[in-house]
Amino acid sequence: MSQFHLIDGTGTSTTLVADKTAMLNSLTVGGLLTTLELHDCSAVADVAAGNLVFKMETDFSAASMQYVFEGTMFLKGLVVKATVADATHTYQVNVEWE
Q1: Nearest 5°: phi and psi at 45?
Q2: pTM score of the predicted model
Q3: Biggest CA-to-CA distance, the chain
Q4: Does residue 64 surpass a pLDDT of 80?
Q5: Total number of domains constituting the chain
Q6: Which domain holds residue 45?
Q7: How far is CA 43 from CA 14, 32, 59, 60, in A?
Q8: pLDDT confidence of 4, banded at 50, 70, 90?
Q9: Beta strand pairing status for 52-57 and 22-31?
Q10: Residue 81, domain CATH
Q11: Banded pLDDT at 97 (limits 50, 70, 90)
């Protein structure tokens, strides 16, 4: 059964989505988000280059965009790190996982 985790933020935030094995289905991204990272770890404190699974650097400000991952496995857990250009802008990331 799919679960959804909605992340609203400004500046930079690192969010634990799942602290156990998770299968990522899709991400829907909106707002002025400049960098999006997905890490395979079970705690925010463990985020590091060695567990980086996916990184996208782009300007998401044009519109809401959806990315389909079709069952990408995160064996330890799923952490999303999102960054915007400055603290006056906001973003939203909706994560669908099982």
Answers
A1: -65, -20
A2: 0.90
A3: 36
A4: no
A5: 1
A6: 3-97
A7: 10, 26, 27, 26
A8: very high
A9: unpaired
A10: 2.60.120
A11: very high
